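ARCHIVE CARD
Drawer: 12
Card no.: 0347
Subject: one protein chain, sequence and derived structure
Cross-reference: see card 0346
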Amino acid sequence: MNIKDEFHHSPRIEAAKAANEEDAVLWRWFSALIDEGRLRWCRSSSGWLVSVDHKHVATEPDFDSAIRAAKSQVSVVTELKKQRSRRVKIQSNSKAHMSVDG
């Protein structure tokens, strides 16, 4: 491996690439929600307040942190809803099988 290859694969470069990808994902999410009219924010004495789908999801001292916290919160809630939906589907399928078998 030559010096040029070492530079392109250094931990610092890899971390920068990962950060750039995270930022790209975040701002695509932000843009999509703006386009859909689902994201709102305002500045208050408490910091930046962010709402998604008319629900308050984050308050942070700076805008960037507030948007990141909002995305994180929305992602957690979305994942929990998916898990709950899967459980309900599994339960209803097992009940349907029980009634057919019973």
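Annotation on reverse: Residues 16 and 22 are 10 Å apart (CA to CA). The beta strands are 39-44, 47-52, 55-60.
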